[in-house]
Amino acid sequence: MNQTWSRFNVTSVFLGLAFLYLPIVLLVIYSFNESKLVTVWGGFSTKWYGSLFQNQGLMDAAWVTIRVGLLSATVATVLGTMAALALTRYTRFRGRMLFSGMVFAPLVMPDVITGLSLLLLFVAVGFDRGFVTVTLAHITLTMCFVAVVVQSRLLTFDRSLEEAAMDLGATPVKTFFQVTLPVILPAIVSGWMLAFTLSLDDLVIASFASGPGATTLPMKIYSQVRLGVTPEINAACTILIGIVAAGVIVASVFNKRREVQRLRDEQAAQRG
Amino acid sequence: MKSLGSIRRSFAPWNDPNAKPYIRFENVTKRFGEFTAVNDLTLTIFEREFFALLGASGCGKSTLLRMLAGFEEPTSGRILLDGQDLRGIPPYRRPVNMMFQSYALFPHMTVEKNIAFGLKQEGMPAADIARRVAEMLKLVKLEQFAKRKPHQLSGGQRQRVALARSVAKRPKVLLLDEPLGALDKKLREETQFELMDLQQELGLTFVVVTHDQEEAMTMADRIAIMDKGQVMQVATPAEVYEAPTSRFVAGFVGNINMFEGKVADRQANTVRITGPSGAEITVENAGDAAAGADVAFAIRPEKIRVSSKRPADAVNALQGEVYDIAYLGDMTVYHVRLGDGQIVRASSLNAQRVTEDPLTWSDSAWVSFRPDAGVVLTR
Questions:
Q1: Which of A13, A141, A151, B347 keeps 20 to 30 A from B284, CA to CA?
Q2: B160 interfacial to chain A (CB closer than 8 Å)
Q3: Mind spelling out the 3-state secondary structure of A137-202?
């Protein structure tokens, strides 16, 4: 393989990275802007971070978002895992194709349609829109993502592990909790994290399903931007980016270490 | 202490008409949709027997094992274990344990926890579990690996953990599904003998599924040879090799030469068989071959003598020419082409360093054998 950096490669890497990250870098830089005008640099300051925490509206919205995210991700993980188990285990039940199609359709469904149809449903059954409806809507949105992640793990799951557990005297319920669940747990955790992230940054569906008193952070930010961007919003976004980046880095370092450790163990075992 | 050999020699419950069957398959049929995996099969296995199910893949041997373990229910017929009908009993309530081909070790548990798993399900007190686990680790010589996880073990070690886990509960029957399939050749040979010793030591009944005939011959007291969901023959390794009852069994186990022909006449237990080209063979142990029947005469390569001249005392001798020679060190394998084009495989032990009657390619040669050296097959 050619390892040298041609001028073309350097340029394309630079352009690609710039395309992806330039807007974010600008946003982060301007969050430290002294000036109240977002596009005019007025010197370095962290005062917007201070005032962010004084902004009760933003803080409330953040708290709602976190609660919605935790609850909806958890419920979606349980439901998504159950759907994935049903789809991989009972391969011959009637209407399996229809069921799997219906589970995965929301993956490609435009958010606007999902949001609108949920809104119509909530109105039809006379649900007061608020915290509960946003959470329900996010469960609908994220469940299929969890199902996909868990299903792909289950497809490579060695069924003889479960047979071995039953053979050794474990009932099907015990087998599930002592063998199946621990083995597929990493996939369930990543499914949960995916669901949580999706719920955190959803704007469209939340706008349809939410009501007074249940404004999520993306909704709040969007509505404030329409009145003009304040550096406070930049600060809020920078904190969000920081949290997400930290999460991703920790997860990948952890994964990498485990991988390396596993490889080393396996090599040691082969040597005897 | 009695040596293992003497125990083995006196062990033959299948010859005792009063022996109580331990495992019994009665007219068992298993269908998967249109496919019949096991077809009206009846089979008896005795207590403390090392029993092998041998066959090519798809012959139904694994299905048989899985029905015994409880993972599949027979479509019809019944399975008895120690007099008890197993129908409807789920795998977790059957007094049998299985060692899986993939070993199926729980990847999130240490070796110790893997072995303790079955004992915990029984609700055994912790102190007893610890004692039993230590005993099992000692049995498979893995004491210093107790705290390791399966991925930190080599293939042979994993195999021994799987074995320890499956015998830890002292099952009535241990089922082994291709137990040595994933090991390399040298390790496999060692492990065969370890398994035999273990079976004697624990006094368990072993039922092993294998496609490797050498493995079955080495380890088993009796072998059931299966084809298309049916048992073709159940016999000791020596009987299977020396006295196959059908063309299928004869061809499946080891190398064999098969001469098709018709029984010209029969006197007492001796028949004369005429081949299509007119060649004639006299065989002493005729079995159930009647005059006029289409039969096959089957004879193993090592029971055929190859020489450059017709041996004076030979009852059966056929002439041909040397078609191929393979020198294997301990023996030499000759392929002799007869007048009608059939190739006869004959092997001769190289007991001397220099052969007195050297044969080479395209030499005229005689193959000869005694009248009792082969068997007559009607099926």
A1: B347
A2: no
A3: HHHHHHHHHHHHHHHHHHHCCCCHHHHHHHHCCCCHHHHHHHHHHHHHHHHHHHHHHHHHHHHHHC
Q: Which domains does chain A have, with CATH numbers?
A: 59-231 (1.10.3720.10)
Q: Per-residue pLDDT for A14 more than 80?
A: yes
Q: Looking at the predicted structure, is the pLDDT value of residue B1 above 80?
A: no
A155 touches chain B (CB under 8 A): no
B-chain residues near A165 (CB < 8 A): 106, 117
The nearest CA of chain A is from the CA of B92 a distance in Å of 4
- Per-residue pLDDT, A111: 86
- Our CA-based measurement puts residue B136 at a distance from the nearest CA of chain A, in whole angstroms, of 15
Is the Cβ pair B98, A183 closer than 8 Å?
Answer: no
* Closest CB to B104 among A164, A174, A265: A164
Q: Is A256 exposed, middle or buried (0-12, 13-18, 19+ CB in 10 A)?
A: exposed
pLDDT class for B2, splitting at 50, 70, 90?
A: very low
Q: b/e per residue, B323-347, with b = 16+ CB within 10 A?
A: beeeeeeeebbbbbbbeeebebbbb
Residue range B4-95+171-247, CATH number: 3.40.50.300
Minimum CA–CA partner of A272 in chain B: B154
Residue whose C-alpha is closest to residue B253's, from B303, B211, B285: B211
Sheet with B23-32: list strands edge to edge.
B35-45, B23-32, B76-81, B84-85
Give the residue with greater pLDDT, B362 vs B77. B77
pLDDT of residue B223: 93
Q: How far apart are CA A102 and CA A107, in angstroms?
A: 10
Minimal C-alpha gap between B45 and chain A (Å)? 21
Q: How far is CA B342 from CA B260, B299, B335, B339, B345, in A?
A: 11, 14, 10, 7, 10
Tens digit of each residue's pLDDT (9 = 90 or more) over B109-141? 999 999 999 999 988 999 999 999 999 999 888
For B164-214, the pLDDT digits (tens) are: 999 998 898 999 998 888 788 888 888 888 888 888 888 889 999 998 888
Best CATH choice for the domain B255-377 from the list 2.40.50.140, 3.30.70.660, 2.60.40.1930, 2.130.10.10: 2.40.50.140
Residues of B in contact with A171 (CB under 8 A): 92
Q: Which two tokens stand for residue B339?
A: 């007048």
Distance between CA B278 and CA B266 in Å, rounded? 17
